[in-house]
Design brief:
Radius of gyration: 17 Å
Helix content: 25-40%
Bound molecules: dicarbonimidic diamide
CATH topology: Rossmann fold
CATH architecture: 3-Layer(aba) Sandwich
Strand order of the largest sheet: 7-4-3-8-9-10
Structural class: alpha/beta
């Protein structure tokens, strides 16, 4: 069984039961004019993980392993958007309002689509999710169970919001999760650091972390 040196201890997995999850690599989070910028965030903090995720996607594709992409977005009629979420943070433009890349965080609009560097290829599962948790109100768990996926390599933005929430919810459903340390970023670098520590504390209470190089080296050696 392949084993990867990881924190807090080696991560073991069966190659037939592993998938890469790329969380919310969308224009609305990564590019100017989107949702994240409307909340006053510094977008430069989340740019480094983009190349790392692209490299991991290439390696998983080369190895013939599944990749799942999530995007946080809402239905055009806003029926899945709680009022509290729309009003939270008092942003300049709210979810559903028109922005430079179409309506903010609305499925099908330019802003809710993936950045080109991390876009899905045909055949890869795309999960549109209304919440932070990729399992909430989606088919993700059913999809993974059908394919006997037990191990998730997790990447994406932002570390302490959708990434951490999804990893915790995956852990509660029995998945062994490895968060790629340089494959995730936060608008607040100190939140990223503390999240990695919190997830792996207490004997890996939520899961494991490792740098992308170890994942890439292992896939290359298969
Ligand atoms: C938010 C996310 N809202 N993808 N989403 O920060 O982490």
């Amino acid at each position: 069984m392949p084993t990867l040196e990881a924190t807090p201890f080696p991560y073991e997995f069966d190659i037939d039961h592993i998938a890469l999850i790329c969380i919310d690599m969308q224009r609305d989070f990564c590019l100017p004019g989107g949702f994240a910028e409307s909340l006053g965030n510094d977008l430069s903090n989340i740019q480094p993980c983009i190349k790392v995720i692209a490299d991991l996607q290439a390696a998983f594709r080369k190895a013939g392993l599944p990749i799942i992409h999530t995007k946080e977005c809402h239905k055009p009629d806003l029926s899945d958007l709680p009022t509290a979420k729309r009003n939270r943070g008092n942003p300049k433009i709210k979810i559903g309002d028109m922005g430079p890349m179409g309506r903010i965080l609305i499925d099908g609009e330019e802003g809710s689509d993936f950045i080109l560097d991390n876009a899905p290829l045909e055949g890869e599962l795309v999960i549109s999710k209304p919440g932070k948790d990729a399992f909430y109100d989606t088919i993700l768990h059913e999809y993974l169970m059908k394919r006997n996926i037990s191990n998730l390599v997790i990447t994406g933005v932002t570390t302490e919001v959708c990434v951490q929430t999804t990893m915790r919810c995956a852990n509660d459903r029995g998945y062994d999760c490895l968060l790629v340390e340089d494959g995730t970023d936060s608008f607040f670098p100190e939140f990223k650091e503390v999240t990695l520590r919190a997830l792996t504390a207490q004997g890996g209470i939520v899961g494991w972390t490792a740098p992308s190089k170890r994942v890439l080296d292992l896939l290359a050696a298969l």
